[in-house]
Specification:
Interacts with KATNA1. This interaction enhances the microtubule binding and severing activity of KATNA1 and also targets this activity to the centrosome. By secondary structure, this protein is of the alpha+beta class. It is 24% helix and 31% strand. It is globular and about 75 Å long.
Length: 694
């Protein structure tokens, strides 16, 4: 056996079962890159150390699924927003609840801590943004301007601005001192999922469901760069700590971008699925993703990733393109002036006083209800050793330099000339396949520290209730026994799965007649493998012909006719394919399309396939956003004098759309009672459809 050792660029570090029900949100600590918080439909917030198998701490108190989480800059505090619109702030060092904040009328879907002060911002499905003073336990200002859910918030490094990204395809910039919007960026054509400030310069990056990453100059308030090469929704963006490049995370892919001029330095194929957050530590990219109740960590070695150079015809040149500089050799773009104090200073205090008198201000004193909720919240330390190692040393004076974290060791990539079979035993090494930077299968990895898939000490993952012993914060010596019950499956087939639907592994095992021999014959094995193959080929061939028919009609420029032809085929998969294209270009939507597609959306929303439901929800949002004002105005307008055929046709179409939307509102109302991300999406649609009842 001959093998060659080389270091790989990216690898899966660990996989855990994070909650007893589906994971609904998670966030990495950006300062260390070693701390993770997860929120679940079990209404808990769990704190983890990256690469550690067990949960450090479990935070309770929420009564609805946790939709978003955020650490502060020192990673000593964590705030979580729930589906009911409440916020809870915990002190991780003291292991206690600090504040319970109430104010949003719908699910909270974005949070961020102010970099220097005791403030935090929250964005909600109700399209409002609120600024909170956690010391005084109240909302000091509310920012209105978005028309749909606010998906991401980010404070500028100097703490003076706040950027918000929304499902309404816009990015807005707010002045915290003046309490008003500075500018609005509208170049995205679909929901904006993430925004990130440059660490030094007046630059802002945004990523969207339109599969682009855009860069904005915050001095001239214009777009200076846009990427077009993303393979899916851009779910996370992160500037390199020195500001030299921008990383973007989309489905299974990490890209490295430069700007002025636009260029992509490198593309790394990572099998992380729908990545949720990124952090950098020891020149390694730490990434996390989740599916159902599992959370996975991935590592990308940035030493092996190209972060400079120019791209010409897809090839990266070694000579970097210099940034625009002045005669003095400094960048032309302004840098942030960071205040030296630990808060935002007198200007923010004056703003808060003005907000207190403003009708927008929603400050309120602590109520007995809030105090009761604080008492009901708790922090259960489930792993005392890791808790003391991570949180307790920070409050102790140390006379020696702090211990530095080491980078995660990369597993070795092996090329085999013959197969290797590892025997089971106490020192088993795991053999796993390796995918190279081009996404090709290269061979197995043998790792002495295999990928772990473990269950935390605070979670019951079994189908029956399990008693779990934890340590009480108020009385560490007294164990607390809690019982958790897993929630029944919703029957939704997720868009990301670890195994194909309908494949029975037992079909590939030997039958009873071969039980003694333990070996399946070649013919029998081939027969089992071919089982269902012909049927699948017929189905895929039929689908290809249908898509080709729709494409030929589409090429004529008649979107309505092509959509009607797709509907007439009675194949929802074809309709979904067409809608996924139209959803990326809202300008293609016409009132005629609505009358054809609304009945199909009703079927999609009730489908068992998650991808179908997501497509239906996106299409319904676009219809409500673009056409509800027209439908409402047309139906409520007084009758015209004389004969107006065009107006009469429009009135009939609006009437048909209204009737279909009313039918859909009942479906949305029923589905909004679900918990988790599906329920949250339908609750958002329910808010958008509220005007139908008036």
């Amino acid at each position: 056996m001959a093998l060659t050792n080389t270091t790989i660029t990216s690898w899966k570090l660990q996989e855990i079962v994070a909650h007893s029900s589906n994971v609904s949100s998670l966030v990495l600590g950006k300062s260390s890159g070693r701390l993770l918080a997860t929120g679940g439909e079990d209404c808990r917030v769990n704190i983890w150390a990256v690469s550690k198998p067990n949960c450090i701490m479990s935070l309770t108190g929420h009564t609805s699924p946790v939709e978003c989480i955020q650490f502060n800059s020192s990673e000593e505090r964590v705030v979580a927003g729930s589906q009911s619109g409440s916020l809870r702030l915990w002190d991780l060092e003291a292991a206690k609840i600090l504040r319970t904040l109430m104010g949003h009328k719908a699910s909270i879907c974005s949070l961020d801590f102010h970099p220097m002060g005791e403030y935090l911002a929250s964005g909600s499905v109700d399209s409002n943004i609120k600024l909170w003073d956690v010391r005084r336990k109240g909302c000091v200002f509310r920012y209105k301007g978005h028309t749909q859910a606010v998906r991401c918030l980010a404070f500028s490094p100097d703490g003076k601005w706040l950027a918000s990204a929304s499902d309404d395809s816009t990015v807005k910039l707010w002045d915290l001192i003046a309490g008003k919007m500075i500018t609005e960026f509208t170049s995205h054509t679909s929901a904006v999922s993430v925004v990130q400030f440059h660490p030094n310069e007046y630059l802002l990056a945004s990523g969207s469901a339109d599969r682009t990453v855009k860069l904005w100059d915050l001095e001239k308030f214009n777009m200076i760069g846009s990427s077009e090469g993303e393979t899916g929704v851009v779910r996370s963006v992160l500037f390199n700590p020195d500001g030299s490049c921008l990383y973007s995370g989309s489905e299974n892919t990490l890209r490295v971008y430069g700007w002025e001029p636009d260029r992509c330095f490198d593309v790394v194929h990572v099998g992380w699925g729908k990545v949720s957050d990124l952090a950098i530590s020891n020149n390694q990219m730490i990434a996390v993703s989740y599916s159902q109740n599992n959370v996975s960590w991935y590592v990308v070695d940035l030493n092996r990733v190209k972060k400079s150079g120019s791209v010409i015809q897809g090839l990266i040149q070694d000579k970097p393109i210099p940034a625009p500089t002045s005669a003095l050799g400094t960048t032309l773009r302004r840098n942030y002036e960071r205040p030296t104090t630990s808060c935002t200073g007198q200007e923010m205090k004056q703003s808060s006083e003005a907000d207190r008198r403003s009708p927008e201000g929603e400050r309120r004193s602590p109520s007995s209800e809030d105090e009761k909720e604080d008492k009901e919240s708790s922090a259960e330390i489930t792993n005392p050793e890791d808790y003391k190692e991570i949180f307790q040393p920070r409050s102790v004076i140390s006379r020696t330099p702090p211990k530095r974290t080491e980078p995660f060791p990369a597993p070795l990539e092996h090329s085999f000339s013959e197969s290797v079979l590892e025997k089971p035993g106490p020192a088993v090494k795991i053999v796993t396949p390796v995918i190279d930077r081009a996404g090709q299968l290269k061979g197995p990895i043998i790792s002495s520290t295999p990928v772990q898939r473990v269950e935390p000490t605070v979670i019951a993952a079994a189908p029956r209730p399990v008693a779990v012993v934890t340590t009480s914060v108020s009385s560490p010596s007294r164990p607390v026994v809690t019982t958790t019950k897993p929630k029944p499956s919703t029957g939704i087939i997720l868009s990301t799965r670890n195994e194909p639907i309908g494949l029975n592994a037992g079909d590939f095992l030997s039958h009873a007649r071969n039980a003694k021999a333990g070996v399946m014959g070649d013919e029998e094995a081939l027969a089992q493998i071919r089982k269902g193959h012909d049927t699948m080929c017929v189905m895929l061939t039929s689908r290809y012909k249908n898509l080709d028919t729709v494409r030929s009609v589409w090429a004529s420029g008649d979107v309505k006719t092509s959509l009607d032809s797709a509907v007439s085929m009675n194949d929802l998969s074809i309709v979904v394919d067409i809608l996924n294209i139209i959803n990326l270009k809202p300008s293609l939507w016409k009132l005629d399309l609505c009358t054809s597609i609304l009945p199909q959306i009703e079927e999609l929303l009730q489908s068992k396939y998650e991808s179908y439901v997501q497509t239906g929800c996106m299409s319904l949002k676009l219809i409500l956003k673009r056409f509800w004002p027209l439908i409402s105005d047309t139906l409520t307008a007084p009758p015209s004098v004389g004969v107006d055929i065009t107006r009469e046709e429009r009135h009939q179409k609006c009437k048909a759309c209204y009737k279909q939307l009313k039918n859909l509102s009942n479906v949305v109302k029923n589905r909004a009672e679900q918990v988790g991300r599906h329920g949250s999406t339908f609750k958002e649609l329910q808010l958008l459809m509220a005007p139908l009842d008036y």
